[in-house]
Amino acid sequence: MEKINKVSVPMREQSPSERIKNFKSVPLGYSEEEAKTEAQRCLQCPDPVCEAECPVSIKIKDMIKEIGDGNFKEAFLIAKRDNPVPAIAGRVCPQEDQCEGVCTMKNIGDPINIGKLEAFIADWAMENKVTEEINIKDKKEKVAIVGSGPAGISCAADLRKLGYQVSLFEALHKAGGVLQYGIPAFRLPKEIVEEELSCLEDMGVDIQLNRIVGQNVTCDALMDDYDAVFIGTGAGAPKFLGIKGEKLMGAYSANEFLIRTNLMKSYKFPEYDTPIIVGDKVAVIGAGNVAMDAARCAIREGAKEVYIVYRRTINEAPARNEEIHHAIEEGIKMLELVNPVEILGNEDGWVSGLELQKMKLGEEDSSGRPRPVPIENSNYRMEFDTVIEALGTIPNRLFLSKTTYLKKDPRDRILVEHNLVTNIQNVYAGGDAVRGNATVILALGDGRKAAASIHKYLGEKANAQTIF
Amino acid sequence: MKHAITKKVDLNNGDYLMEVEAPNVAEKFQPGNFVILMTREKGERIPMSVQKAEDGKVSLFIKRLGKTSKELDRYKVGDSFFQVIGPLGIAPEMKKYGNVAFCSDLVCGHAENYAFCKGLSEIEGNNVISIQTFPSEGDIYPESELTEHLCDEFYLTTVDGSKGRKGHYLDIVKELLEERKIDYIFAGGDLSKLRDLGELTKPYLIPTIITVRQIMIDGTGMCGSCRVFVDGEMKLTCIDGPMFDVHKLNFEDILHRVGMYKGEECKAMTAFEKQ
Ligand SMILES: Cc1cc2nc3c(=O)[nH]c(=O)nc-3n(C[C@H](O)[C@H](O)[C@H](O)COP(=O)(O)OP(=O)(O)OC[C@H]3O[C@@H](n4cnc5c(N)ncnc54)[C@H](O)[C@@H]3O)c2cc1C
Ligand SMILES: Cc1cc2nc3c(=O)[nH]c(=O)nc-3n(C[C@H](O)[C@H](O)[C@H](O)COP(=O)(O)OP(=O)(O)OC[C@H]3O[C@@H](n4cnc5c(N)ncnc54)[C@H](O)[C@@H]3O)c2cc1C
Ligand code: SF4
Ligand code: SF4
Ligand code: FES
């Protein structure tokens, strides 16, 4: 038997000192040889546990086998069959909690770099202009999809492949949802998002930008004009701490900070018109993916010192390991076990610092993480020029206020049954709009599941009509 | 979608009117809604009030101010904008208010004044009073773009007294309040004057609804940039407004935040003028 290679092929990356000056991809991607070597480490397990943990059930084992054998086209088609956007998922999936987290190789060495291989194969196809062959047999039924994030994209792709007439309504002037406006280009280059979206257009999905459902298209019109509707409006509205000082100039929600940076390209100001103000010393409150992204953008936009301010310790941080690791490499400092109680301001109305209360870890809470407990009389102040609140997001009120008949939970998440149907029989929902803050791949999986449910519903409806 | 410019008229030395094709906006527009405009792909998303929405076109009053509005000025009839997005914001109900006034002293206010006068006067039982203030005679808009032909009572004032009544709309409102019952006031324009209007109407307990201008990006409630505090509670100008009850607003914050990017805007302007 061949010797098992316990160590994974390292990913070449831009050096930290170089990359903090640009927004280009941090990982440089595997070469064909590197990808083959990494793929050949796979044990080809009889029971591929990795696949069970992939929310879209990619045939990981087969994909890796083909990469190992140098059959890149086959590998790509395998990935693409279950995931319409492999170049994206391969880059942003929290693999350590999913496919790679359970990889058998972990017992003896490094898990297989499944995400990196998935991204490699998708990039290879893009470079070599290899695409999936799709034969679409047109059906007459029309489906409207609201929101062009991963949930909307995957739902649109699947339904279109099945022949439905699909219109995708997006409120912003660019499609992609968080992939476009939230996740920065150094993690997810925007050309990749655009390329994967252009496949949708090539298939004949009618993408309508600047269409704000509830505002310039009514929900009733969608329900009347289309045979089914899928809601993938995400959870894009910022949460604020509600502490004193949030009105100050220099206080941002992470959403605003990231939308300016990524969607409006403020890092290219004044070539792009939208400005951003990043002071020398920046505090980012929170320790999820959003916080890491904001911190890493801030350092690239000229901040001298950036702090992640977190009430637990970094061991409990919800961000992906890779993001935390990259952030630390880039010089971002972790200020652990502190809770901001006030944003301080100067007489001109600008942020001047934070008042922080020290915390300690207590008992486990419902999330399974130790609860942060405030320490009495431990408040102190630190100077900052910019404060960014990255506390997670909530569903957007705009859409919900116009669809009061949709059943929601107390946190405004749309309620659905197991097949993702809402309380209205031809309206389905998925992704963050249903789950709150989740992940790209879960949203994607929802989109696909909803597409299958819609297909079933419309099929049954059509059959019923032919009987009568 | 192409947003072709179909008309451009100078309103005075600083302001001009642009009519642009935007069928999706025009179809659903209500007085009080606004749009977001992008001149080109690399441009900013800038909020603009709407004067008129007819035949698939919207008319905007634009002030030559900073980079975007000056750049906008280079666009001619036949050119196209990258995006005209909307309508956005909550439109107050067009219903019977009784003695209802609209006051304005700046481009955005004048545009809304026009839209409101048209909307309110179509409803029976409204006595629509429109007050428009300009700095001086030379600044007054062409008659067709003023509200006189749309309202029941019209007051034109100039701050220097060179035409119409001398003074600001605040002076007229003060007189009106002293002489009769006014049921409802809407207003738009200079923020500090809107604050003064609030002070003026507060003792009379007259509902006074004003347009708040805050810095916006998406206009759909996603960035939080346009936050204001209404009775101490955080609201978003783009989806909860842009019209709010002046008596509940914290004006210090609003006046501060709207100036946040002054320094950067100067940089953009300098870079633009060098081109
Ligand atoms: C900064 C950041 C970093 C993240 N990093 C990761 C990561 O590394 N890995 C990961 O797996 N997940 C990550 N996430 C989470 C992930 O991006 C989301 O879970 C996922 O995008 C949800 O997809 P969605 O399709 O449900 O919604 P979204 O991506 O939020 O898309 C919703 C779309 O709907 C549009 N919309 C909303 N209302 C309307 C309306 N009324 N009419 C028309 N359109 C409307 C919005 O404009 C938006 O484009 C991150 C999130 C953020 C914010
Ligand atoms: C609801 C609303 C309605 C408006 N209606 C009109 C209108 O009808 N006509 C008109 O000329 N202007 C209107 N404005 C203001 C207009 O959006 C700004 O004048 C414009 O963004 C200026 O861009 P600029 O590049 O020319 O100037 P800049 O140099 O960028 O800015 C000049 C000043 O304009 C304000 N401003 C800048 N960016 C924004 C922004 N994104 N949102 C709000 N204010 C900003 C700031 O006070 C700034 O100091 C409106 C604003 C809002 C919020
Ligand atoms: S989609 Fe995510 S979980 Fe599935 S194989 Fe790719 S990286 Fe792993
Ligand atoms: S679990 Fe790991 S080693 Fe086994 S098939 Fe999956 S990737 Fe290969
Ligand atoms: S403009 Fe972004 S929330 Fe209002």
Adjacency order of strands in the biggest sheet of chain B: 12-11-10-9-13-14-17
With strands numbered from the N-terminus, the spatial order across the biggest sheet of chain A is 3-2-1-4-16
CATH fold-type name of the largest domain in chain A: FAD/NAD(P)-binding domain
Rg on CA atoms of chain B, Å? 18 Å
Q: In CATH, what is the class of the largest domain in chain B? A: Alpha Beta
Shape of chain B: globular
Class computed from helices, strands and strand pairing of chain A: alpha/beta
For the largest beta-sheet of chain B, the strand count, sense and barrel status come to: 7 strands, mixed
Total number of domains of chain A: 3
User: What distance separates the N and C termini of chain B?
Assistant: 28 Å
Assembly context of the chains:
heterodimer
Instruction: Give the number of domains of chain B.
Output: 2
